[in-house]
Automatic annotation (TrEMBL):
Gene3D superfamilies: Tetratricopeptide repeat domain. Residues 1-26 form the signal peptide. It holds the Pfam family TPR_11. InterPro entries: TPR-like_helical_dom_sf, TPR_rpt, Ycf3. TPR repeats lie at residues 100-133, 134-167, 168-201, 202-235, 269-302, 303-336. GO terms for cellular component: cell outer membrane. This is Uncharacterized protein. Keywords: Repeat, Signal, TPR repeat. It comes from Bradyrhizobium jicamae.
Length: 452
């Protein structure tokens, strides 16, 4: 039987190396004094204070001051002050443009904030300045991983490991590249080596757990992620990942307990949606819908929650709400074949049951929550409301057809529809704008595309 639950986001979270120490050994920094040093595991606020004291000390040598500024920049970034961090690094580079660590730090911050072109520029410069530094290659490999250029990433990890054969983080991150390529056995081999070198690295256990899950070795996956939780119980992703493993074993009660813990540590749309899926599997549809509602309150564009809430509405017999949720899921992600199939199926079912009459002369949106004047005008005019629904229905058919050819074509059609709605919203009420004519023209254009 086909699953109505969309699987796109129900996957384990993998983590690459970051600026701060990732040894992930559960320990308190209060056990030892905070030192302004690279890859410190100290809390960012404490590290900023210690580094600032060193920087402001007139007796600090210039080279040590610049190193402290780089360390402080990393701490600023990790405390959410990214602009200040980048300004700090720019100041270091202005004083010494041959300092490779400054370029590595800049590249890492840019990578983590998604500015990939600038990140590669900085990381390339770091390697040019210090071609024998393993960390430089590992950092650039992480950027290639983020850019989904996994073969290039593996080449850089290989070079990092040639320069530093005991580089545990490089083994772990190369494992992530193999994982993303679908080479799960190779990923596990790299995670094994990383853990041999550093057996207390919680995230490596969690990542290896994800690879075991892909191979169907659920018990090994649960064992690994449980070890990760024992080492570091502060990471919500670990509980969420174990919840996915337990749900995969149909152990929904324990899965829900783990999702509870993840949500307690940090409420996120994906954790709430995963818990909603577990409730839905237990046929507790009201709790499932409540979780999907909460997920969408946190992230109104979390597409999977719409699709899976639609499935719950179907189980409760509310086809109209299911249809709306599936339509929104398709709009947000035209490449989700599960959502597209669900929308098509519920539409056909409604037609078979002769239940489309309830939609007659209703627009595609909810008039009770309409705020824009143009939407209120559409709701007040039955013919305009029907035009709006016709436009939406034909648009969804066009999207489904375009997706069968290419995702790019589907996205292009989605952009055209958004442009039409944006222009409709901004032009309504202005001199010379005819709402009815604009809607009729849009419907004609969509029908033409649908017939092609």
């Amino acid at each position: 039987m086909r699953s109505f639950i969309s699987p796109f986001a129900a996957t384990a979270s993998l983590t690459l190396a970051i600026l701060t120490s990732t040894a992930a050994i559960a320990q308190t920094t209060a056990e030892r004094p905070v030192v302004c040093e690279a890859l410190s595991a100290a809390e960012p606020a404490a590290l900023i204070d210690v580094c600032t004291a060193l920087i402001d000390n007139a007796a600090t040598p210039e080279s040590a001051r610049l190193d402290a500024m780089i360390t402080r920049a990393a701490a600023l970034h990790n405390s959410g002050q990214t602009d200040k961090a980048l300004a700090e690094i720019a100041s270091v580079i202005a004083k010494d443009s041959s300092r490779p660590r400054a370029f590595r730090a800049r590249g890492e911050i840019l990578r983590q904030t998604g500015r990939m072109e600038a990140a590669f520029e900085a990381l390339n410069q770091a390697i040019r300045l210090e071609p024998d530094n393993a960390t430089g290659y590992a950092n650039r490999a992480n950027a290639f991983n983020n850019a989904r250029k996994y073969d290039r990433a593996i080449e850089d990890y290989n070079e990092a490991l040639r320069l530093k054969p005991d580089f545990a983080q490089a083994f772990s991150d190369r494992g992530a590249a193999w994982y993303f390529k679908g080479e799960y056995q190779k990923a596990i081999a790299d995670y094994d080596e990383a853990l041999r070198l550093e057996p207390h690295r919680a995230r490596t256990y969690s990542n290896r757990s994800a690879a075991y899950r892909k191979l169907g070795r659920t018990e090994k996956a649960i064992e690994d992620v449980t070890t990760a939780i024992r080492i570091d119980p502060t990471q919500p992703e670990f509980f969420d990942n174990r919840g996915l493993d337990l749900a995969g074993n149909s152990d929904y009660a324990r899965a829900i307990a783990d999702y509870d813990e993840a949500i307690k540590l940090r409420p996120e749309a994906k954790f709430l949606t995963n818990r909603g899926d577990a409730y839905q599997a237990r046929k507790d549809y009201d709790r499932a819908i409540a979780d999907y509602d909460a997920a969408l309150k946190l992230d109104p564009k979390f597409q999977r929650a719409y699709n899976n809430r639609g499935a719950a509405w179907v189980k409760k017999g509310d086809r109209s709400r299911a249809l709306k949720d599936y339509a929104e899921a398709v709009r947000l992600n035209p490449s989700d074949s599960t959502a597209a199939a669900n929308h098509k199926e519920i539409t056909q079912e409604i037609e078979r049951l002769g239940s489309l009459s309830y939609q007659k002369n209703l627009p595609s949106f909810n008039c009770a929550t309409a705020k824009r004047q143009v939407e209120k005008a559409i709701c007040a005019d039955a013919s305009l409301a029907q035009l709006d629904r016709n436009i939406n229905d034909v648009f969804l058919r066009v999207i489904a057809s375009a997706e069968s050819d290419s995702r790019r074509a589907a996205l292009a059609q989605t952009r055209q529809q958004r442009n039409f709605i944006d222009k409709r919203n901004s032009s309504f009420g202005k001199r010379g704008y005819d709402l009815r004519q604009a809607m009729e023209d849009r419907l004609d254009k969509l029908n033409t595309i649908a017939r092609q």
